[in-house]
Design a protein that fits this description.
Blueprint (H helix, E strand, L loop, with lengths): L10 H10 L9 H14 L3 E7 L3 E8 L5 E3 L5 H4 L6 E3 L12 H4 L6 E8 L5 E9 L7 H67 L5 H31 L8 E4 H12 L7 E7 L6 E4 L1 H17 L4 E12 L3 E10 L23 H5 L5 H11 L4 E6 L3 E12 L19 E5 L3 H14 L2 E5 L2 H10 L4 E5 L7 H10 L7 E5 L6 H8 L3 E4 L4 H12 L14 H7 L3 H27 L3 H17 L3 H16 L4 H24 L1
Parallel strand pairs: 8-10, 14-15, 14-16, 16-17, 17-18
Antiparallel strand pairs: 1-2, 1-6, 2-3, 4-5, 5-6, 7-9, 9-13, 10-11, 11-13, 12-13
Helix pairs in contact: 2-5, 5-6, 5-11, 6-10, 7-8, 8-10, 12-13, 14-20, 16-17, 17-18, 17-20, 18-19, 19-20
Length: 662
């Protein structure tokens, strides 16, 4: 290595250590600037700096009295300091043989005094210097020398901390991407599993409605039970994924608590073994109507009671519900599921609610199940701001109990139309669906309802049929070739200007999909495998002209109004800029995403996020933030596709709302 300056013996390792910190050519940093000011103050000098030395230059991370960002390595004092392990102090450069004729001594910075401490990494490499320089002769006392050494250690500690933080951020990104990848994998797998499962369950239900002999009916019932069990397993996995990603919301709707409990009891009593007594005890003070999430209560109780029945071969399983507290607005209800089953060992009680954990290693094989049920139960109860408790004794039985608070129902209950029969007349329905089995199933079910059905194999065919014929509603699969369900719906709403009710039907379960369906203009959502009653209810709901068919977005202008301080022109200008720029940025983002241009996606998503935050569009801002993160990491996933579509649909809706306002 032929250089005009001395080279440390460990130069290659030293340069590698410097590179590891990614400090060269970075922006100013308060922590380093404060350290430089401290050196200037402690030593009473006009020039101080923190610098790093690479192959050819000395680069100043922070400096006082220098005014430039770097100098060639061969003209620096510090090229010698990094060869040392201790502080280098030159009290009078005019008397120093090495430096007395140096251009920065005879002119330049007029260096008369120099003190430099090597910045040494924990593994012993001198990557830079901390220096104090003066135009006059000077000598540091011991306190000043000690202080310089301490500040030098602080600089290295700051570098180490920054590096660790960067590593942690990278690890966090990797972990987040792993979670996104897992969720996307689960969602895609659920689609692949649910599509054939939809046909199996649907055709089995239809077959069960035909004339069968006793043996055939027994076989059909076995297939139905197996199908339902498989569906429960798929739902368990998806529910856990949604809970962990924070996308499972607790509903708040009026329901009859007594009817719900009796329904669960009747549903599960078929599972009771011969030597087991199964009882349901309801408190006499239990209210009829409450407001909360009926579906999630069903899920909790079916899991807990199902477990008790599964693990109890003799004795009793007792479910009791009592009112424990009442206020002007709420009821607190305590639920208990008690059994005389196999019980849980004491050392397992703390882990019983962890996923894939059961009381005994053998229970999964002996009794079946995913090992997810209790984990989901615990999290569903915690989402309702409560907790579940368990008491158990091995071979004596267990009791699971929890208390949930529900709002009182103050509205007058209305008699609901029956959804089990068709009272809509002769509807003409268009089905957009590419799977032949699902087409046959839907045709049979829809014909059983007494409706007429036309079938399109993809969105393009669906649009063509809609243009030629008159239909009462559309059943729309989301995943289709040529044009998918989202693109088809957008075309129907924006190009055909049609308000025909559209019901989404899908085996896909990506997080946020239901919301996305509403945003593009669909009116209802039926997951596959569908129950006939659920599909008919959705059809009745969208055909009810008195019902609100779409969820319209509202735009919160409170932050903008706060910034405007009463200036309506400012507010109007901001909205006009948003209306002009956001659609352009959305188009640029979509194009960059299509071309896998990570840098442009990162930049545009970041800019869009700032604009969306001003209008408090938190859901869209979160989509932009995820896209920015994924672009930074240089990898797009199926979650990215989902987010970019939600963002696009949301922007169309927001622009429409703002144009109506102004």
């Amino acid at each position: 290595m032929n250089k005009d300056f001395p080279i440390p013996d460990n130069e290659l390792q030293r340069l590698a250590a410097l590179k590891r910190y990614n400090i060269l050519d970075t922006l100013p940093d308060n922590a380093f600037d404060d350290a430089t000011k401290l050196v200037s103050y402690i030593c009473g000098v006009p020039i101080a700096h923190i610098s790093f030395i690479d192959e050819n230059r000395q680069w100043f991370k922070s400096e006082i009295g220098i005014g430039i960002s770097e100098v060639p390595r061969e003209i620096t004092f510090c090229r010698y300091t990094i060869l040392d392990t201790e502080m280098v102090e030159i009290n009078d450069t005019h008397l120093n043989e090495r430096f007395k004729d140096d251009p920065n001594v005879t002119g330049g910075f007029n260096v008369r005094f120099y003190a430099g401490v090597p910045l040494t990494t924990p593994d012993g490499y001198n990557i830079g210097t901390l220096c104090a320089v003066d135009h006059i002769v000077k000598k540091l006392d011991e306190n000043q020398k000690n202080a310089l050494s301490i500040v030098a250690k602080h600089v290295i500690a700051q570098l180490e901390l920054s590096t660790k933080n960067i590593e942690l951020k990278e690890q966090r990104k990797i972990a987040e991407k792993a979670v996104l990848a897992r969720d996307s994998f689960l969602a895609n797998m659920s689609h692949e599993i649910r599509t054939p499962l939809n046909a199996i369950i649907g055709f089995t239900d239809l077959l069960a409605q035909t004339e069968l002999d006793e043996m055939q009916r027994d076989y059909i019932e076995s297939v139905q039970i197996a199908g339902e069990n498989l569906l429960l397993i798929v739902n368990d996995i998806l529910d856990l994924s949604k809970i962990e990603s924070g996308n499972l919301a607790i509903e708040s709707e009026p329901f009859n608590i007594k009817k719900t409990l009796k329904h669960v009891y009747n549903l599960l009593k078929v599972k009771v073994q011969n030597d087991v007594e199964f009882d349901l005890f309801l408190d006499a003070d239990l209210p009829d109507m409450i407001i909360g999430d009926q579906g999630r209560l069903n899920q909790i109780l079916v899991n807990l009671i199902g477990n008790s029945l599964k693990f109890t071969s003799e004795g009793a399983v007792t479910v009791s519900v009592k009112k424990t507290e009442e206020t002007d607005d709420t009821y607190s209800l305590k639920f208990s599921v008690k059994d005389t089953g196999i019980g849980i060992p004491k050392n397992k009680l703390k882990t019983i609610f962890e996923r894939f954990t059961q009381g005994e290693e053998s229970t999964t094989r002996t009794f079946g199940g995913t090992g997810l049920g209790l984990s989901i139960v615990k999290q569903l109860i915690e989402l309702q701001k409560s907790e579940i408790h368990v008491k158990s004794e091995l071979n004596r039985g267990s009791e699971f109990y929890f208390t949930l608070t529900y709002k009182k129902n103050t509205t007058v209950s209305l008699s609901l139309k029956s959804t089990s029969q068709n009272d809509l007349g002769k509807l003409k329905i268009l089905l957009c669906e590419d799977n032949i089995l699902n087409q046959k199933l839907a045709k049979s079910v829809i014909n059983n309802f007494g409706f007429d059905l036309d079938i399109a194999n993809n969105g393009e065919e669906g649009i063509e049929l809609l243009s030629k014929n008159t239909y009462d509603l559309v059943l729309m699969d989301l995943q289709m070739p040529v044009k998918d369900g989202y693109q088809t719906t957008e075309f129907i709403r924006n190009e055909l200007k049609s308000t025909i009710p559209i019901v989404a039907m899908t085996a896909h379960s990506l997080v946020g999909e239901q919301e996305r369906c509403y945003k593009v203009g669909m009116n209802a959502y039926v997951p596959k495998p569908f129950k006939q009653a659920v599909l008919l209810k959705a059809i009745k709901t969208v055909m009810d002209t008195d019902a609100v068919l779409t969820k319209k977005r509202t735009v919160d202008l409170s932050f903008l109004e706060e910034m405007a301080c009463g200036d309506e022109n400012f507010k109007k200008d901001m909205i006009e800029i948003f209306l002009e720029k956001i659609p352009e940025q959305d188009a640029e983002l979509q194009e960059a995403f299509k071309n896998e241009d990570h840098e442009t996606v990162k930049k545009v998503a970041h800019n869009m996020k700032s604009s969306l935050d001003i209008f408090l569009l938190e859901d869209l801002s979160n989509c932009a933030a995820i896209l920015e993160q994924e672009a930074s990491a240089g990898i797009f996933t199926t979650e990215s596709i989902d987010k970019i579509e939600i963002l696009h649909c949301g922007i169309i809706e927001v622009v429409k709302v703002l144009k109506e306002l102004y």
